[in-house]
Amino acid sequence: MRSILGFLGVLVVLAVVGILAKKQLGAVTAVPPLSPTDSGVVLPTTTPGASPQQQSQEIQQQVKQSLEAAMQQARPMPDDK
């Protein structure tokens, strides 16, 4: 009798875990993936026929310019109360 109740308990726990896993996987697939442009990320562009070294230098320059532009923006000041 005790083993039957133990087995039924395991089946109930397994069913609950299966239902929760199904809900979680359903929630993950329902969210559409964001493209880089939707999230505000701008990917660096390079010259198509350039060598890898030139492409690397172009990307580094673009990142440097983006960083400098971000550093020039004024930081919002909190309201003093």
Q: Secondary-structure blueprint of this entry?
A:
Elements: H1 2-30, H2 52-72
What does this 3D model show about the protein?
The protein is an all-alpha fold. The protein has a domain of 28 residues. The chain has two helices and no strands. The chain is elongated, with a radius of gyration of 27 Å. The termini are far apart.
Oligomer: single chain
What is the H/E string?
Answer: HH
* Counted beta strands: 0
Major beta sheet summary: none
Portion of residues in beta strands equals under 5%
Helicity range of the residues? 55-70%
Compute the number of helices. 2
Average pLDDT rating: 83
How far is the first residue's CA from the last residue's CA? 70 Å
Inertia-based shape: elongated
Radius of gyration: 27 Å
Q: Poorly predicted ranges (pLDDT <50, ≥5 residues)?
A: none
Structural class: mainly alpha
Defining key terms:
81 residues; mainly alpha; 2 helices; 0% strand
Q: What is the gist of this entry?
A:
With 81 residues, the protein is mainly alpha-helical.
